[in-house]
Amino acid sequence: MLSSEIEQAGWAAGLRTWLAHDAVYLPPDTEILKGERAIRAYLRQHAPDPAAVTTVLHREAGGASADGELGYTFGWSEATDTAGAVAYGKYLAAWKRHGHRWRVAALLHRAATAAPSDPPADSPLLTGYHGTPRPHRHGEPRHGLFAADRAFAAQALAQAPTVGYGPSFVDWADPNAVVFGNRNFYWGIDWVKAIYPYTVAGELLTWEPSFGDAAGSGDLGWTVRDAGYHYHDPTVTIDDYSKYLTVWARQPDGGWRWLLDDGNERPAPAP
Question: What is the pLDDT of residues 170-210, one digit of tens each?
């Protein structure tokens, strides 16, 4: 229904009716926006004119936690202007149930180069994969999820001097993880292992989770954070600034692993 409302009414009008009051929004090239009021104000100024651009969302897959409290969807978009030119994108959304209706809890979108290839028919995400439910004390899933994200960041930092941050993404990946490429989605741990190990010594990616939530059933969660990339050698110094939305799935052994992860650019911090 979100897709049909965006197609009919435009990005701003279609999205704002689905926002949770404490939603987190990650549009390209700006800071993380928190709260329905801030997001609506941004959309009024920056969303495409629905009379000039028609946006269609194509859902690839999604799932919901065992208790039906939290969910995720992801896919790609195509925005067509009145001249017929098409701009492609990708999106990742976390959802929260409020009463009898689902609301967008967190949303990231960014540009893409083309429509992706079809997904593999055997991916568990196509049938709603959501991780393993786990008994817990009140509040434990969210605290444990933030602790896992921090431990992931600590491993990326510790490995950076020798192999770069990339191998940590392999170690922390769910077996069904999906990598968001500039065109295609890359489904499953074999693709994670093919893409992430090839950072080099000194490639540094740092982050700290800022927002997030976890289902009461303890099987599914999401986090949002700013990140910074740094690399330096005698010939070049590179600093890039980004922000990320990650969907996490609980493993049978009780640990959290990332299932979906995508990001976009943000402004450089003030000096």
Answer: 999 999 999 999 999 999 999 999 999 999 999 999 999 99
Confidence (pLDDT) at 138: 65
Which residue is associated with the tokens 């009716």?
17
**CA atoms within 13 A of residue 254's CA, in its CB half-sphere:** 5
Residue-wise pLDDT tens digits, 70-117: 999 999 999 999 999 999 999 999 999 998 899 999 999 999 999 999
Q: Which domains does the chain have, with CATH numbers?
A: 2-117 (3.10.450.50), 140-265 (3.10.450.50)
